[in-house]
Specification:
By secondary structure, the chain is mainly beta. It contains three helices and nine strands, in the order E-E-E-E-E-H-E-E-E-H-E-H. The chain has an eight-stranded antiparallel barrel with strand order 1-5-4-3-2-6-7-8. The longest helix has 7 residues. It is globular, with a radius of gyration of 16 Å.
Length: about 180
């Protein structure tokens, strides 16, 4: 498929307070939903991938509510470099067609747990039935010390078949 080049002015590239950060996270399967899940803040996320390469390189487009962004990630396992910029509707719409065949949809719930927010992703479409929980950390020490609630199951951090990019590419089936 040929996509015509569209010139896009990336206004506000410094829109994020931190132009580059390290993402430290763990990912889990759920044993069951936490009590009162629907009362927690939640919203639909659609995302697609523009590029995927070696060393965990990913360039992702995401729309969450009215927020549209382009994210560059590199690295593997639980720690990665991440850079994100906000996009206008015009910019997002110009790039979105290039993600055809590399997309996913999920509903994300933000559940407070002690000092953390546990993001529960309930997948839609071809991955309906898959539910994962992610927790981000400020440092490796708090990551290692994290004790999940009893409704969280097996740790699947770093398991490729549970990564969003693998799900979007449909490289793997999940249990």
């Amino acid at each position: 498929m040929f996509l015509a080049f569209t010139k896009i002015r990336l206004a506000g590239m410094s829109a994020s307070k931190k132009p580059s950060t390290r993402e430290i996270e763990r990912k889990f399967l759920l044993k069951r939903f936490p009590p009162g899940l629907k009362k927690f803040p939640h919203g639909t996320i659609v995302q697609g991938y523009l590029a995927v390469g070696r060393g965990g390189l990913q360039v992702r487009l995401r729309k969450k509510g009215s927020i549209r962004s382009l994210t560059f990630k590199q690295g593997t396992k639980g720690t990665r470099e991440e850079r994100e910029i906000r996009l206008s509707l015009e910019q997002f719409n110009a790039l979105w067609p290039a993600t055809t065949g590399r997309r996913l949809t999920k509903v994300r719930y933000d559940v407070p747990w002690k000092k953390h927010i546990i993001e529960i992703d309930v997948y839609r479409g071809r991955h309906r039935g898959l539910v994962v929980a992610e927790v981000e950390f400020g440092d490796q020490r708090s990551c290692a010390a994290f004790q999940p609630p009893d409704w969280i199951g097996r740790d699947v951090t770093g398991k490729p078949k549970y990564s969003n990019v693998a799900l979007a590419l449909d490289r793997h089936t999940v249990e």
